[in-house]
Amino acid sequence: MPEKEKLIEMYRQMLRIRHFEEKVYELYGQNLVPGTIHLYVGQEAVAGGVCANLRKDDYITSTHRGHGHCIAKGADLRKVMAEILGKETGYCKGKGGSMHIADFSIGMLGATAVVGAGIPIAVGAGLSIKLRQTDQVVAGFFGDGASNQGTFHEGINMAAIWSLPVIFVCENNLYAMGTRQSIVMKIENIADRAAAYGIPGVTVDGNDVLAVYEAMHKAVDRARHGEGPTLIECKTYRHKGHSRFDPATYRPKAEVENWLKKDPIQSFEAKLQKMKLLTKKEAEKMERDVILTVEEAVKFAMESPFPAPAKALEDIHFKGGQQN
Amino acid sequence: MRELTYRDALGEALREEMLRDKTVFLLGEDIGRYWGGAFKVTKGLAEEFGDERVRDTPISESTIVGVAVGAAITGMRPVAEIMFGDLSALAMDQICNQAAKICYMFGGQTKVPLVVRTPFGAGVNIASHHSQSLEAWFMHTPGLLVAVPSTPFDAKGLLKTAIRGNNPVMFLEHKLLYPVEDKVPEEDYTIPFGVADVKLEGKDATIFATLYMVHKTLAAAQELRKEGISVEVIDPRTLVPLDKQAIIKSVKRTGRIVIVTEDCKTAGVSAEIAAIVAEEALDYLDAPIKRVAEPDTPIPFSPPLEKFVIPDEKTIIKAVKEIL
After folding, report:
1. Which residues pair with B181 in a beta bridge?
2. I need a labelling partner for A41 at 20 to 30 A (CA). Which of B102, B170, B198, B257 fits?
């Protein structure tokens, strides 16, 4: 069990993600968010439990559903929100948007919107760590859908044969867009696939942040000591549809209701209160502070200018240092 | 000056850059101790630098490039080898969606110092999956740089520039060039990207040629000279960036251009060069632009079939005479 500060910090991060995402949803409804959004609401325990085990110099790779990963790794909410709104002050100066946020200063190596494409990149960061002989680790986030891509097989195999410090974090929210897992896989637990690569695979309740934390703790410990990669499958559920306009009618009502009852934030709050680590009053104050931070992020993003159109012609090639 | 083969010039560039910078490492299929690469470019390097820095990989092209991308954005300078250019199709997502776009998508936050070496070209009767010339795929993807060395001197100097630079480079070799010998200085030198080389000066027509076609064009030029026809042979050396001015300058002088490439004619390299000349130097042309290229077929196996579709001295001479 992690110490009190760690537990409280995980709770705070999860709250930050939840309120941030609810706000994005609200802004989206007001037509202020261009393009599409893939919300992380409901999956906060995964990013929370995983990133609580990482140092600032550790790396993560992320997906189209990546806001939560960025926030949990320590990204600045203002710059995330500004990027989502397409503003010049966003992390990517408005060039990436919701699906492509990166912050290299905190080891957030960027979100790719090609399902499964982040896996080889995470493995490459792992190889880089091995060659540079540091004790960093990489957490590669991806979904159940990505585990059917060739990159999953190729990437995990390569990390396994070279004993790379990579933790493969599969967020199994049971649906790849609208396709139920059972339609596209014979197996129930994606972690079973780890056996094929000769590495440990564990399945945990992805709505239980402590379970995620513990599994990740072990995996990070192994990775930092040169013992190689681990595949962690976190069973979880997105509260909203896949993306905008998706009412998610493919999901049975009873299933949705059952998962909503297992809300990762509510259950963690109850646990913390039961453990006498957080009073109701403290929780309320924390929530007020979080809401305020999110409001500040919105204000910053709304007041920021859009990029000058001709900036579209910049950053095609990296300008610093030695040119090719 | 001493002479080196194209193969050894490339190997020497890799060796010198690995000695110069410990973040440079190589990965690819069978590049290590046993084979030293299918075309022997990396022969001896595993013995000198060890298996960690000259890394044999599984047959996983997509992840070979993806791993190189991940390593490149975390402090390393990987040089990946794809055994045959045709197989780059397997890695297209990592090349074109990831490596090419990371700098742009993430707002210029990171360099992507990555080189993908791969051989193109027909001429050894290995049919449709081992003989193509696919330069246009990469020219068509913003973010990539594309090098096409035709001589041992260019190969060494351009490869060094590719490795030292901060952007992803598709370094396209030609399998018939590996045994070609020519002068290569012993001292360290680099060749900047975007600077064409006039391989032969002439006044009656400009011939733009790349890779092995440079050699066929030079042979054709010798024949033409016997008939009193003097052609200028321009080798761009890099297709991205492209030295447009060198082409236009030459066309302004000769008033005629023949474009000789081994890739398919439709939407290929020759189409782009023709469009540039038409847009920027039409008034200087005394004859229609002429293209000599592969006639839009897969590369066939049987020697007479293959010979038929690949441009040679005769087709080049014929094309020149048609516009004189």
Report:
1. B5
2. B102
Among B69, B71, B106, beta carbon nearest to A100: B106
Pick from A178-187, A244-253, B140-149, B246-255: least confident: A244-253
d(CA A68, CA A15): 10
* Residue ranges of B 109-148 with Cβ closer than 8 A to chain A: 109-112, 142-143, 145
Active site residue B130: yes
Residue type, B59: I
Whole-number percent of chain A with pLDDT over 70: 99
How far, in Å, CA of A95 to CA of B143, rounded?
Answer: 14
CA atoms within 13 A on the CB side of A240: 17
B205 with B179, same domain: the answer is no
Residue A227 amino acid letter = E
Residue B167 is assigned to a structural domain of this protein: yes
For domain A4-300, the CATH class is alpha beta
The whole domain housing B154 covers: 3-183
CB contact under 8 A, A114 and B145: no
pTM: 0.97
| Residue found under tokens 């896989």 | A185
The domain boundary, picked from B125, B160, B183, lies at B183
User: Which of A59, A92, A318 is opposite residue B111, by nearest beta carbon?
Assistant: A318
Distance CA B260, CA B265 (A): 10
Report CB contact under 8 Å: B165, A322: yes
